[in-house]
Amino acid sequence: MTLDATATGGRTPAGPAQTRRYLMCRPTYFTVEYAINPWMDPTAPIDTTLAVRQWEALRQTYLDLGHSVDEIEPLPGLPDMVFAANGATVLDGRALAVQFRDPERADEAPAYAGWLDRAGFEVHEAKHVNEGEGDILSVGGLLLAGTGFRTSHAAHAHLQEVFGRPVITLQLVDPRFYHLDTALCVLDDETVAYLPEAFSPGSRAVLRRLFPDAVLAGMADAEVLGLNAVSDGRHVVLPAQATGLSAALRERGYDTIGVDLSELRKAGGGPKCCTLVLREREATK
Ligand code: ARG
Description:
This protein has 7 helices and 15 strands. By secondary structure, the protein is α/β, with parallel strands linked by helices. The strands form 5 sheets. The chain has a 3-stranded mixed sheet with strand order 2-1-15, covered by helices on one side. Strands 3-4-5 form a 3-stranded mixed sheet, with helices on both faces. It has a 3-stranded mixed sheet with strand order 6-7-8, with helices on both faces. A hairpin with a 2-residue loop joins strand 3 and strand 4 (94-97). The longest helix has 17 residues, at 48-64. It starts with 20 loop residues before the first strand and ends in an 8-residue tail after the last strand. The relative contact order is 0.18. The site of arginine has 16 residues, from loops.
């Protein structure tokens, strides 16, 4: 079927799906025993078996789409280690290690850095608080970097030094959307989807300027962590509950695949949080 540009809101996805290499961490030790974001309630019951099942379905979704998935060994006592996006930022075969804001997650940083080093990536030490792909998203030749809750502004300058790419600082203002990847999703090299209310007025203006064609998400979809989605340029894996966003993306010509990560959402995480993109060095760019 050829998509009619008018029926797809005037544009079609920038290109074909890119085959990706992902790093994930099985939620063997997942629970909610501390609260470092407003989603976390340590008194709420957690079903770890269900969390593992939901995570396995996400992993299988990636494999079915043709992507490859590496796994890092989960460590006991690190219940949030499942959120692999926070493990590093990996681009051009280079990895910037993380430094967590909260001591509860501190020991995850060397575990991820060690894995990446052994996997052959050139690991750069973190100098400031930065929570990896949770707050740092690559789009086209740019890096979008969130700040306000976790990743510090100082880390943005370091990021630019490490990767040699322009870094665009985005100010997050709503504590429920504490990481950039809860408020904005990169769809392809040219487009993003985001929740305008999650950003300061200046950052909203920057986003409008950079991405005039962006998909604007509504609060109902953001509140089920709908923007915490993973796109390979054509297929968008997102929380099944984000029905409005899914319809809007389909209208633009993306294929959407809903997954249920309700158990992990109790810690404030969705599909993107569970997924670190491993980008090898490219010949061009
Ligand atoms: N409980 C974790 C935290 O607050 C959730 C991390 C979600 N990860 C993400 N990339 N948004 O740090």
